[in-house]
Amino acid sequence: MLYDAHGTVCIRVWTLGTFRGTKGDNAVRHQNTVFHTVLKHLPWDEFERLVKVYGADEDERGFTAKTQLVAMIYAPLSGAASLREIEAGLSSHQTRLYHLGIGPVRCSTLSDASAHRPSGVFSDLFAALVQRTQRELRRQLDGTTYLIDSACVALNCRSERWARFSAAVCGAKVHVVYDPDADQPVYSAFSAANVNDITAAKAMPVEAGATYVFDLGYYDYAWWAKLDAAACRIVTRLKRNTPSP
């Protein structure tokens, strides 16, 4: 991979490796990018289903959810640090966008789509990918251990419509299920700061047979029973007034 300056905008652009994509020497050569091959691993049938469920392309105006997803995947792989760099990088491969199944990307259009397109279509796709990964992991390990916790994030007054915590404070919480073996989160969700941890936990997906570790913020017999019904194990602290079995 090489970083070069393209056009009049001097930025670092990832030059994608290529390989032969045709058979025989008499055919016109077309070279697929490595990025194109990476995208083949995504469950596109599931993504198209989610697009329909969320109506993510109803007001697309030519900029589809697929184009947005591909652009946002391209960003970290290319080292792009802004929407303008994403636009410049993909524009440098303009002739190959057709083979990726996407159209042109403009930073203003990408910004509008990120602000208004339902985020659930992407978070649900991520959850589907995690499930596929965990199935492979379970073939190698006898059970998986997850850590559940939350963290507060201070926000400014622009978030007061949904994240007001008190008269003078706005804040949010990020709720995370963390896989210590993979050293990465497998689930995350955001809420206002005054939402209890157990309320968010009840909406989290449960993996049958896994071990869940959490603190007293998740003290709820009904939720524990749900985990037990899924053959899960739990590790937590008990309150002093918890009755003995």
- Average pLDDT, to the nearest integer? 79
What class would the helix/strand composition place it in? alpha/beta
Radius of gyration: 23 Å
N- to C-terminal separation?
A: 61 Å
State the share of residues found in helices, binned by percent. 25-40%
Can you describe what's shown?
- By secondary structure, this protein is an alpha/beta fold.
- It folds into two domains: about 1-115, no CATH class; about 140-235, no CATH class.
- The protein is built from ten helices and nine strands.
- It has helices spanning about 35-40, 45-55, 65-80, 85-90, 95-100, 105-115, 120-140, 160-165, 195-200, 220-230, and strands at about 1-5, 10-15, 20, 30-35, 145-155, 170-180, 185-190, 210-215, 235.
- The strands form three sheets. A five-stranded mixed sheet has the order 7-6-5-8-9. The protein has a two-stranded antiparallel ribbon with strand order 1-2.
- Helix 2 packs antiparallel against helix 7 (about 120-140).
- The longest helix is centred in the middle third of the chain and has 21 residues, at about 120-140.
Protein topology:
Blueprint: E1 2-6, E2 9-15, E3 18-20, E4 31-33, H1 34-39, H2 44-54, H3 65-78, H4 83-91, H5 97-100, H6 107-116, H7 120-140, E5 145-155, H8 160-163, E6 170-179, E7 184-192, H9 197-201, E8 211-213, H10 221-229, E9 233-235
Parallel strand pairs: 5-8, 8-9
Antiparallel strand pairs: 1-2, 3-4, 5-6, 6-7
Helix pairs in contact: 2-7, 3-4, 4-6
Keyword list:
245 residues, two-stranded antiparallel sheet, five-stranded mixed β-sheet, alpha/beta, 2 domains, 10 helices
